[in-house]
Amino acid sequence: MSVARFRGVVLAGHKQRAIEVPFDPGERWKIRTQAIRAGRRGHAVRARINGASFDGFVVARSKKFWLLLPADVEATARIAVGDEVGVTLHALG
Predict the structure, then answer these.
(1) Which of 53, 52, 55, 49 is nearest to 6 (CA)?
(2) Cα torsion through 20, 23, 24, 26, rounded to 10
(3) 69 contacts 18 by C-beta, under 8 angstroms
(4) In terms of residue numbers, what domain contains 51?
(5) DSSP letters of 2-64?
(6) What is the mean pLDDT of residues 5-15?
(7) Is the pLDDT of residue 2 over 90?
């Protein structure tokens, strides 16, 4: 299983919260993107932040890669915009 650990800052996006991922999951893990919704594709991952685990996606935007945070993760992981957190990602693709 492909695993990565890094630190990142929770940022407010125009649609949802996200954390910058310091690598391209497609290159590093050789996984393809899949459809998330109309017009949006992402790499499927299992993430862990402050003990909270969730399945999510890493998407490309502005030549960077972003872990999208589902709305309920902020409360479950007790994080807020501006917090620096430890992230563990596992490739699902």
Answers:
(1) 49
(2) -120
(3) yes
(4) 3-91
(5) -EEEEEEEEE--SSS-EEEESS-HHHHH----EEEETTEEEEEEEEEETTEEEEEEEEEETTE
(6) 92
(7) no
Q: What is the CATH classification number for the domain harbouring 40?
A: 2.40.30.100
CB 59 within 8 A of CB 42: yes
Q: Which two tokens stand for residue 79?
A: 């994080």
CA angle 40/45/50 to nearest 5° reads 120
Q: How many structural domains does the chain have?
A: 1
Contact assessment for residue 9 and residue 82, using Cβ atoms and an 8 Å cutoff: yes
Give the CA dihedral 10, 13, 18, 19, nearest 10 degrees: -60
Whole-structure pTM over 0.90, yes or no?
A: yes
As a whole number of angstroms, the distance between CA 81 and CA 86 comes to: 14
